[in-house]
């Protein structure tokens, strides 16, 4: 099972040229409301948490909700669960369409898996995958999902700072710490541009996921496939930005839970 899609290790920021730190690993950032303002990460972590608890149906639903907010790792997890029949009925056709979606930004791990899936579909399944994939792209593709995420980031930053311009100024955020004692964090850390500016936030994801270190992959017997192209096989469709958000429990990840 490809849980490594969602749990690929993120290199330390102390290493030159490596990816920046993941703020969800900082308990202060989590308790300060960071995850409640970043639905892509929130619902991905809930999906991972439910998988660890063996609640695969709930995990599948949370990954789909994270996917609604342009989270490519969660889209890959939806694909993998569809491929293996985990938390949902096995459906290789839809699994391919979702993995094609996860590979939309050219992330190497996902493009490779997309091609492995494609190599195992027969001609009839390939036709269906391209047809059914259009509805998936319309609801979850970047043209639909990125604007949703950008709206949340801008709204939540403005709400927390109390300024229509989202200015941090001398703001300090007081939150309960992991030991139950009160503590504060500098607003300039909480509102680092890479976590709130929609373009920079997506660039941060790109730095992490462009060539992730993904471990064992199990999609059946391995076969040699050509080097994958970056472009999707699924025809372009008009985005449905206002598509209905998937329904899940209104929950937050456990603060003592590790990704």
Write the layout of secondary structure elements.
Blueprint: H1 4-7, H2 27-31, H3 39-52, H4 56-67, H5 72-84, H6 92-102, H7 108-119, H8 123-140, H9 142-161, E1 172-176, E2 182-186, H10 187-190, H11 193-196, H12 198-209
Helix pairs in contact: 3-4, 4-5, 5-6, 6-7, 6-8, 8-9
Low-confidence stretches: 7-17, 213-225
Q: What is the share of helical residues?
A: 40-55%
Strand content: under 5%
Q: Biggest sheet: strands side by side, in what order? A: 1-2
Structure description:
The chain has helices at residues 4-7, 27-31, 39-52, 56-67, 72-84, 92-102, 108-119, 123-140, 142-161, 187-190, 193-196, 198-209, and strands spanning 172-176, 182-186. It has a two-stranded antiparallel ribbon with strand order 1-2. The protein starts with a helix and ends in a 50-residue tail after the last helix. Helix content is 50%, strand content 4%. By secondary structure, the protein is mostly helical.
Descriptive keywords:
12 helices; mainly alpha; single chain; 259 residues
Can I get a quick summary?
With 259 residues, this protein is mainly α.
């Amino acid at each position: 099972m490809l849980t490594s899609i969602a749990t690929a290790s993120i290199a330390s920021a102390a290493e030159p040229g490596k990816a920046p730190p993941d703020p969800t690993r900082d308990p202060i950032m989590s308790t300060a409301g960071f995850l409640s303002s970043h639905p892509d990460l929130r619902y991905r972590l809930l999906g991972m948490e439910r998988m660890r608890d063996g609640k695969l149906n709930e995990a599948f639903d949370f990954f789909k909700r994270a996917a609604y907010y342009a989270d490519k790792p969660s889209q890959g997890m939806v694909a993998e669960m569809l491929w293996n029949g985990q938390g949902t009925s096995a459906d290789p056709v839809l699994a391919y369409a979702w993995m094609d979606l996860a590979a939309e930004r050219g992330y190497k791990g996902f493009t490779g898996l997309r091609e492995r899936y494609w190599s195992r579909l027969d001609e009839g399944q390939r036709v269906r995958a391209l047809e059914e994939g259009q509805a998936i792209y319309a609801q979850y593709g970047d043209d639909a999902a990125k604007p949703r995420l950008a709206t949340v980031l801008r709204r939540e930053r403005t709400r927390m700072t109390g300024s229509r311009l989202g200015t941090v100024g001398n703001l300090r955020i007081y939150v309960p710490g992991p030991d139950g004692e009160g503590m504060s964090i500098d607003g300039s850390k909480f509102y680092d541009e890479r976590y709130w500016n929609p373009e920079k936030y997506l660039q941060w994801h790109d730095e992490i996921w462009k060539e992730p270190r993904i471990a064992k992959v199990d999609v059946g017997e391995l076969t040699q496939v050509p080097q994958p192209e970056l472009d999707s096989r699924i025809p372009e469709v008009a985005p449905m930005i206002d598509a209905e958000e998937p329904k899940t429990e209104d929950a937050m990840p456990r603060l003592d839970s590790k990704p």
